[in-house]
Amino acid sequence: MVDASQDLSNRPTRGVASWLVPSLILFCLIYPRHDFAYYSNVNESARIYLVMAAVDQGVLHIDDGIKRFGDVIDKAEHGGHFYCDKPIGLSLVAVPVYAILKALGAVTGHQWTLGELRYLLTVVCVSLPTVILCIVLRRYWRNVSGDPLLVEFAIIAYALGTIAFTYGTQFMGHQLAAVLAAAHFLLARGVTEQTTIRRAAAMGMLAGLGAITEYFSALVHVIIALSYLRRMRPWSAWGVWAVSGIIAACPLLIYNAVCFGGPFTMAYGHEAARVFQEVHGTGYMGVTYPRMESVWGLLFSPSKGLFFLSPFLLIGVAGILPAFRSRRSECMVIVLSIGAIMLLAMSVYVWRAGRTIGPRHMVTMLPFLMTLVVLGVGRWPALRPWFVAGTIVSIVVVGLSTLTLPGFEENFENPFASQTLFLLKRNLVTPTIGLWVGLRGWASLLPVGVAVFGSLVALGVWARREKRRLASWGAACAAALSLAWFGFVATYEPDHPAVRTLFQGRTLGLLGEFRESSEYLERAIDLNPTVEFLQETVPQLLLNYGQLGDEAAKSRLEQKVRRIEAGESRPRG
Fold it and tell me: Is the pTM of the predicted complex or chain greater than 0.90?
C-alpha cells in the first residue's frame, strides 16, 4: 500500500506509462518490414496466396499465386489444384483487409507488391491485435498483482522479450491465436449466472475463430469453456455461445469440403511435398508423443529452447503457488492451458518446425505463462532484479534475432551466435521502415534500441519516485549472472566448423549475398571434402554462380566435384 500523497505524486509518471508502453510495443512491432529481396517465408506466402485468391478470383486454390510470385513447399494438392495447407483463421481475418487495400490501390492507382501486402496485412491482423492484448492484459495483471510498475515492465517483457515479438511481426497464425485465447480467458472471468448474450456470443466467436487459427489452441479454448461450464446461465446463453462458435469455425469446414471433398478432411492429409506427406502421416497429422529430444529441444536447447531465449519465463514456476492460493479456478485454467500446449508442441514428430525462431507452437500459451511470472514476482519481491535482468537479456536476444533474419536455420546448434550475430557483423539486417529515412544495416536498428532504452529509463525514474531500491546485492548478482549468460549465448558454437560454414553459406545465399555465400560453401567443401557434403553444397553454389554469371567458377566446381568423387571411389588400403 502507498499513502495518498505518494500516489498523487506519481500520477504524472503513471500517466506517461499508460501511453508510453503501448506506443513502444506498437512501434517495435511495425518497425521491421521483413521484405527481403530473395528470402521469403513460405508459411506466410501460402496464407497470403489464399487471401489474394479468395478476393481477386473468388477461388480457394493458390495456383495463380504460385505462378505469379513463386512456389511454396507449404501447400496441399487435390483435384489438380494447390491449396494453402495452414489453418485458415488468419487468412479469413485478412480477407476484408486485403479487399480494402485492393480498393484503395484501385482508387490511387498504386499496384501493391507482395512484400507491401505481407507487411500491411501483418500490421493490421497480427501486430495491432497484439498491442490491444497488451492493453487488456495490463488491466488484468494490475488487478492480480496490485503493482502498476511491475505490470508495465511485464508488458514490455512479454511483447519484446519473448517470441511473441517474433511472431507479432510475421503473417503467421500463432500470435493471433494467442490473442484470441487470452481474450477468451479474460472474458470468461466475468461469466456469472446472469451472463449477457453479448458476452456469450463473444466467447463463442473467440473459441471458434481461435480453433481454426491454430489447431493446438482449440484445446485451450475447451479448457477455458469447461471452467465456466457450471457458471454460465441462463441456458439460452449456451445456445448463443454454440451458434457463435459454429459460425466462426464453419469457414474451415466449408474450406475442407470445397477443397478436399469433405468438411473433416484436413489439408494435412493432402500434402503436395513427399517429405510433408511422411511427416503428417506419422501419428495423428504429425502429432505423436513427447520425446526427451523434443522436451529438451523446445524448452532448453540453444537451437529452439523457450527458456534459452527468454530465461525470465522460468519465474513462472514461482507464480503457481500464489495463483493457486488466491485464484484457484483461474490458476487451474492457466496451468492446464500451458501444460496442454507444451504437451502438444513436444509431441510434434518434427519438433523443430522448420526455419523458425523458438518453439512457435508454444506462442499461444505465453500470455498464460506471463501471468504466472507476474504473480510470482509480485509475491516474492526478491525475484524482481532477476526478472529485470533476465528480461533485458531476452529483449536483446529475441530482438536481434527477429531484426536480422526472423527464422533460425534449423541445423545450427546455437543460431543466435552462428546466425544472428554472424549476420549482424556483416551489417545484414531485415528491411525496416528506417529505410524510408536512409538508415541502412545495423544503424537501422538504432531507433528500436533507443525507444526500448528510453522506455526502460522512464520506468526506472518511476521506480525512483516510488523510492524503490534499484541497487542492491541481489540486483548486482542478477546483472552479473545475466551478463555471463549473454556472453555464453553469444559465443557458444558447438557445431563442427564444416557444418557451421556450410549453413552460414546457405544463409548468406538466402539474403542475396551470393559472392560471400560461395566463399563459405567452397570453404565448407575444403573442410569436409566428401560426396555427402557435395550434395549439401553444390546446388546452392550452382545457384550462386548463375546469379553472378561466373562460368569459370562453375568449371572449377565441376573439376573439384570430379576429384572428390574419384577419390572416394578408389578402394582404400
Answer: yes
